[in-house]
Amino acid sequence: MKPTIHLVDGSLYVFRAWYAQVPDAFDADGAPVHAVHGFARFLLDLFERARPTHLAVAFDESLTTSFRNALYPAYKANRPPAPPDLVRQFEGCKAIARALGATVLVATSFEADDLIGSALAVARTAGFRGVIVSADKDFGQLIDDGDEQWDPPRNQRWDGGGVKDRLGVHPHQVADYLALTGDAVDNIPGVTGIGAKTAAILLHHFGTLDALLARADEVAFLRMRGAASASMRLREHAAMARMSRTLTGIALDAPVPASVEEYRRRDHDAALDELLERLRFGPLTRARVKALAAGA
Q: Is the pTM of this model over 0.85?
């Protein structure tokens, strides 16, 4: 069995913690830290269940400054800015992740997806397999033999076959699939009128987006509902499909540590105790931290 690196989509689980709880926890200055507490419990659950030896937690710091915004200014423009209190709590979540021994990945020109993909590329050169801790469908494109995607709070885990079951396409086709369907959450246009089922059928027949666009005339002859309309839309919106593909692909050249040893989980020290005190964590969380430190 290959050694494993766990790569965590930190922003997803911070947002979940933020929305799942009312502001019922406060730090030494009286500021809300409920998202920090929820995220810390998530990380502790992960450590207790997986006992990761190599670990990175990636955060988004590029909502308006990633390379995708330069390519398509409307990318994610539909998202409102995070409230100042949530931005502040993100800093607390990063501090907790570092204090618990994880490598934290951030960049202003790349998103968490790109940081995770790039870290996985580094780990693969050292013979590691990846477990991507996230529920985001975009990560399906990174799943290779031996890799998995895992959403611990929902107790869901899947491999490349699971990607096919969920989306109807193979992992290497996921970015092409998303370029066809678009993504309302990220404001990626895709091809108007091409839905999930049609996109999966088209990629089953043609393999890749490039091949599909080059042979768009042939789509009209498929035994598929709306084939003629799909053929016309692909011809009309080919440029938009190609542009969308530049947005849906996860970059593998983001600035991340270049040696897998730099992702080895570190022992936590007295700084963690000070952080837990400042953030007003309760005795149960502190006991869990001490148990992990003792290898229990």
A: yes
Structure tokens at 65: 């400054």
pLDDT tens-digit series, residues 195-224: 999 999 999 999 999 999 999 999 999 999
For 142-159, the pLDDT digits (tens) are: 999 999 999 999 999 999
Nearest to 51 by CA among 99, 3, 93: 3
Residue 27 shares a structural domain with residue 80? yes
Tell me the pLDDT tens digit for each residue of 33-54. 999 999 999 999 999 999 999 9
- Is 182 inside any structural domain? yes
Determine the structural domain holding residue 25 and report its residue range: 4-160+251-293
Structure tokens, 264? 């080895």
Cβ count within 10 A of residue 221: 10
Domain shared by 43 and 187, yes or no: no
What is the Cα–Cα distance from 296 to 276, expressed in whole angstroms?
20
